[in-house]
Amino acid sequence: MSKFNPVPIIAIIAAITLIFISIAMGGNVIIFVSAGSFVITVVGSFCALLASFPTRILLNVPSILKQAFMEPVESRKNLVQLFTNLSRKARSEGLLALEDELTEIDDEFIVKGIQMVVDGIEPESIRDILEFEIYAIQKRHGYGHNIFSTWGEMAPAFGMLGTLIGLILMLSDLSDAANIGIGMATALITTFYGSLLANVALIPIGNKLQNQTAEEVFTKEMVIEGVLSIQSGVNPRIIEEKLLTYLPPAERGKEEMKEKKVS
Q1: How far apart are CA 38 and CA 30, in angstroms?
Q2: Which of 14, 68, 167, 190 could form a disulfide with 37, with the two C-beta atoms 3.0–4.6 Å apart?
Q3: Bridge partners of 2?
Q4: Strands 70-72 and 2-4
Q5: Contacts of 16 (CB under 8 A, 6+ apart)
Q6: Residue 138 and residue 118: Cα distance in Å, rounded?
Q7: What confidence score (pLDDT) does residue 209 get?
Q8: Which residues pair with 4 in a beta bridge?
């Protein structure tokens, strides 16, 4: 499960706002508005993106973009407690007793792993199946951050293309020297648009999606370790200590302090 996180969109809006405030403090914001530059940079780079990726994948861009502003609700700290409890039940009542707990678990990946343990599937097969599922997740999510990273590379390139077009048009008529400065400024707007689009929105979104995938994979690797440890009959205390290594040092310290108080 995940919930909406407004921080990324607030950061993007704040960055754009600060840029235009600095422009307004030094000059006229209106001169930075150009429909032609917008078409060349934004629409042009998007058309190049259409040529770079399969249409069926690009149709998922809205849902991919939505995912960039979501954060998982579950924490690895909860997983430590979950697998510790499951291992205690497995040791006291047997592996088959874990089937009763599956209805209380929302994560399909965990349910799949525990169900295979209950079904008596070999540990090597469980690892292979779950690791292949992780690979499939990386492959699917990879398209998402590749789309935005690629678009982030194309936008400045199209901005430079627009600048070259503007310079050619300007240099084709040098009879009016007064218009050279205005023409140069207009030509550079496309580069500004490309850099703004890439560095404020596209590249950060691509990085966010990539980091989300890395975090999800790390959590699922933790799940695999917990599932296989339960199947092997490892002592619950050892499982807990092993899974605590997946937590950040600050959270790990808090959990260890709780355990000392309980004991």
Answers
A1: 14
A2: 190
A3: 72
A4: antiparallel
A5: 196, 200
A6: 27
A7: 94
A8: 70
By C-alpha distance, which of 205, 179, 235 is closest to 62? 205
DSSP output for 162-173: HHHHHHHHHHT-
> What is the distance between the terminal CA atoms of the chain, rounded to a whole angstrom?
32
Q: Which amino acid makes up residue 12? A: I
Report residue 42's pLDDT band, with 50, 70 and 90 as the boundaries: very high
Q: How many residues does the chain have?
A: 263
pLDDT class of 258 with cuts at 50, 70, 90 = low
Q: How far apart are CA 259 and CA 186, in angstroms?
A: 65
In this structure, are residues 225 and 241 in contact, taking their beta carbons and an 8 Å threshold?
A: no
Q: What is each CA distance from 224 to 62, 131, 147, 206, in whole angstroms? A: 31, 8, 30, 27
pLDDT in tens, 54-111: 999 999 989 988 888 888 776 788 999 999 999 999 999 999 999 999 999 989 999 9
Instruction: Determine contact, residues 141/16, Cβ cutoff 8 Å.
Output: no
The two most distant CA atoms of the chain are separated, in Å, by: 92
Measured in whole angstroms, the distance separating CA 65 from the mean position of its chain's CA atoms is: 9
Closest CA to 221 of 153, 134, 150, 156: 134
- For residue 141, the one-letter residue type is H
AA identity, residue 71: E
